[in-house]
Specification:
Chain lengths: 340, 340
């Protein structure tokens, strides 16, 4: 190889290396490509920098805990929680096994298929349906049924599996936090057993990092003498409102440094998170994008909603306490991974 | 450098490299140096090989869960559980705040210092003492007290901090399993909050991987308006016997592939573990070493014990079910890290 050729070759290598380094630096400087530049993105990036680089706000890796509400924070919760759809869809199978339920409310209404009547169900109605469809079977039987439903069911608006309806920007936050030594937990008012069926696949969050509303199980032996855990209709942890910090203490055992929610059910989790020493991040997703997703509050003049209520009082507390409100409309460049 | 010198130098490097490789191979082939060769050590190594190398018994990393009882399995539980010592030691401080307790049993006996009388406490007595010393304070106040006690208290036999009384061979099992992609959990009949205070420091197990007996907490606001979690005298999870698989489902959400215990309180956890498909490891530590530690059963003619009971029926089930009994006397080369 002549000198010129060697120099060209070397220059080529150096150039390639510089490009590679540049790409890496670029990747490092934009961990949240689906976020528009703004105060929300800035709050996340500054929090991660402050808590992972040496300085007064540094957080030791063992204390890096971040908690995320699920419905409305990590994925779509409108028009109704996916778990409620699961329970309604399971009613015919339950009635087949217990035909006497066919003439008993609220099962009779579910069997009639009258969506308008179902929309008027009381909490007690929904609890009866939940008890009938989520308990009385082994843990494995429940998991198999839920898995089957998730593979087949479609959301009414986008006609996609529910597991497609996770928010790309929040997926990026999960990945970004984990890349910086944070353990990411779901802390949901939804059923812990239900969310655990898919959380690993869609969020990379293993079952032990899902905290949610939990019914008891009872250990016993089946007809074949094999040990079995049966799901019982007895509430153990109501993981909503004050139940969220209580559930965090029960199953995580440490105060989070970052917490994300979207409704009044997340308020106590955010208060508890912010009450700790040092840098703490508290964020609330505001659904103000009727075109790309949904718009509901009633904060900021948005339409009221029974599902994922975000009151003006919560908005005001966020402002007062230094929590960051994420505007879906303004802060998110894209909502879903499958969008063009 | 002459040719000979170069050759010698090269040979030296090659030799050093070979030594290094050899040392590494040796290290890999002996992950359990405190274990004598025998069926117990063999069972652990074969289980890890079978479940982590390609073959019919391979377990995907996300399913690699191993659970360990604590008292008597990972550290010394005789003459009495360290948490009971903590509660007894806390009584004077409680009586100072509530002087009316000084003349009420069982507090009166504790204040008298009469160890013989204390040894006769009923379960109800101990529950009263536990409620008085473990509840009615914030989570942080409890943690600070427990930390202070652990730093000062000494075990009566070896005059060492309780945190020194962990078993070196079991520490090696924890490390070995984690090096092979297993997540290691403590599943203890002891108090979850108590064990979480020191589990990270002495076992490398973070709070969220400690499952134990749990009282409820209640979320509220202190006099300063700050959110606070208060420990309440209401049992939420009795993590012993059948409560162990129930606690595993609640806080881990997956059946373990390996489980370690030492008493009748661990039986259901081992049954549940072994009832899963594929390779499952179930082991029981038998305390048959009065000289280096303690000897109790009453299995195999060992003295009976109320603390860490290992019955002959449990021994027989272990034999029948293919669980491996670890003989402390024969299987462990050393018990503690600080032994000469």
């Amino acid at each position: 190889m002549g000198l010129n050729s060697t120099l060209r070759h070397t220059r080529g290598l150096v150039f390639a290396a510089a490009l590679a380094v540049g790409a890496q630096v670029f990747a490092q400087s934009d961990p949240l490509p689906s976020w528009n530049d703004g105060h929300a993105k800035k709050a996340i990036v500054e929090f991660v920098h402050a808590t992972t680089m040496s300085g007064p706000k540094f957080v030791p890796p063992e204390q890096r805990i971040a908690t995320f509400d699920q419905d409305g924070t990590l994925w779509v919760e409108h028009p109704i929680y996916s778990q409620v759809m699961y329970c309604l869809d399971r009613v015919p199978a339950v009635v087949k096994v217990k035909p006497e339920l066919a003439n008993v409310e609220p099962f009779k209404t579910v069997m009639s298929g009258n969506r308008e009547a179902m929309a008027k169900f009381t909490l007690q109605d929904l609890e009866k349906i939940a008890a009938a469809t989520l308990t009385g079977m082994s843990v494995e039987e429940f998991q198999a049924e839920a898995r089957k439903w998730l593979a087949a069911a479609k959301d009414p608006r986008w006609k996609r599996p529910y597991t497609d309806l996770t928010y790309k920007p929040m997926q990026e936050v999960l990945t970004y936090l984990r890349a910086n030594g944070y353990r990411t937990f779901i802390v949901t008012g939804g059923g812990q057993d239900f969310v655990r069926v898919y959380a690993e696949q869609i969020y990379g969050i293993p079952p032990e990092q899902v905290v949610g509303t939990a019914l008891t199980t009872s250990f016993g032996y089946g007809k074949d003498g094999k040990p079995v855990l049966t799901k019982e209709p007895k509430l153990m942890l109501d993981d909503d409102h004050a139940g969220k910090p209580e559930g965090i203490h029960l199953e995580i055992g440490q105060r989070p440094h970052a917490a994300f929610g979207n409704s009044v059910g997340d308020q106590q989790m955010l208060e508890y998170t912010k009450a700790g020493d040092g840098a703490r991040l508290a964020m609330l997703v505001l659904h103000d994008d009727a075109k790309r997703e949904y718009a509901y509050g009633p904060a900021q003049g948005l339409p009221d909603s029974k599902v994922g209520t975000f009151t003006q009082a919560l908005y005001d507390e966020a402002t007062k306490q230094g929590w960051t409100v994420i505007s879906m409309k303004n802060d998110w460049k894209r909502i879903f991974a499958w969008e063009p």
